[in-house]
Amino acid sequence: MSLSEFPIDLSKFNTKLSLDPSKPKLSPDEKKALEANIQLFRDAIVLFTATGAARGVSGAYDTAPEVCILLALFNHSAKFYPVIFDEAGHRVATQYLLSALEGSLPAEHLLHYREANSKLPGHPELGLTPGVKFSSGRLGHMWPLVNGVSLANRDKIVFCLGSDGSQQEGNDAEAARIAVAQHLNVKIIVDDNDVTIAGHPSEYLKGYSVAKTLEGHGLAVLTKHGEDLDSVWEGITKIVAHNGPAALVLKRTMAPGIPDIEGSTHGHDVIPVKSALAYFKKRGIYPDFSPLYSSIKALAQPYSHVGVTKEVGATRVIFGEAVNLVLDGLSKEEAQKKVMVIDSDLEGSTGLKVIHQKHPEVFVPSGIMERGNFSAAAGFGFDKDKFGVFSTFSAFLEMVVSEVTMARLNNCNVLCHFSHSGVDEMADNTCHFGINSMFADNGLSDVHSALYFPADPQQMIAIIKKVFFQRGMRFVFSTRSKVPWLLREDGTRFFDDKYEFQPGKDEILVEGKAGYVVAFGEMVYRAWDAVLRCRQEGLDVGLVNKPTINLVDEKTITKIGQSPFVLVVESWNQKTGLGSKFGTWLLERQLTPKYGYMGTTREGCGGLWEQIPYQGLDSQSIILKIKQLAA
Asked: What dihedral do alpha carbons 517, 518, 521, 525 form, nearest 10°?
């Protein structure tokens, strides 16, 4: 058994099945054919998603009944717009399997799910993967676009798959109102399985009802059981028959029938190989797929960086630990009165989980509502002696820019932690790149708010200790990937327990007569490796760590601006990042060294560590750029 052949026969999927929605009941033969398609679809999803580096079955397994029904409707009539839009990008496996079923992808290629350069990333991207018909973007962003598709195709019925997670986003509330006001023939089918990344909406978002919310916006809404095929079919026929926007809410358990993860949050993101094997053993019609899974090995990062520890730490997790160190100095009563930490369904990913566990008195679990959650944190910090803490992925910073302005106008105290910054290990690919973070620095010149990005785990602790109770807006960034601790040339750590962070101060890690590299965050250790290797070759290059990204350190910029060259290295967007500003800062001070800047310039390649060299941001690429500027 190898990766050269897909071990489930997809030719058994009945791509010609046609169902007439004017008939509210399935015939025995139709139901049998539909059930066979659904089961084969689910088997294939479990098989190939478990091969992925993320081992992600996500929600694609759940929605197989409605997907297979929609395919049959498309076969029946041209009145349906023949694309199954989905506003939950993590259900990308559905789109890849559909591409294989229509012949756009070889079935065996599915076994490279989420592998770097396989063109099968963690969210669907139009133009990247053969057969994929849309880019889902971030969660809850598809329905507004589908409204536009409907406006352009008034004679068609347009479907969009949703979820109880995606429906929490404010975008969908606006989309619902537009659909109703314009009487669009948009049909939303919601997988309501009461599971999101961090927990169950019924527990952390009490009072939230998908069906009641949609009804309140004016849609016609039906609720059915998602695993009762006759009920699902009846519901779809009714929303199709309704003239105007309508929604079908399908109640079901997450990942029904998959051992160990059914009904749990684990079904949202990952399925261990052992669970996939247990699933197929229970099915009883397939051979043992253990050899297939055993043949798949994650490709390790082959490059060995110098000037750093072998040990690595997750700065996104250490953020939460650092906050705990601050809160440990307060009584429970004082902490509860003074601090509020609000989550956006990502506490396990952004470091807030440890705060939740150790200091529940300050923690507010909340849903996938970044704008509202940020503003709640800001409102808590409206009092000059209270401090809100907000956290989400860096990619979602773009969603709260207007709320940041509102908080700034109201002199609110908010500490924002944006994890998953840059592109390193971003398996969800381009739509989840956290590269436009300079957007947070959107105040006028007379109002300062700092953007901080620690170079290693110890510096994260030092930054949080220093800025936690500072007033105003503070933004702290971290990466999805773990990073090593930086070492001096004598082997000691740059940032030890005695280190004290000074906001606004650039840190010259090593001086150089040939020129300087300026870096921040996870690019510092890569730049340090490059600088050390250049110095070993006799090229006297210096390195500046810039942990306060958006503020000019006059002393340092004057010093490095008088050197032969300055090179800014970052993983943020080359168009909007530090490099796009630093050259101007130099010229404003009549400093004219040779200047270069490196940043993210391309849509992603999928995978994990491979994203950095794909963008030309690896140490060897930095060395090449240094030598070009030094020539």
From this structure: 20
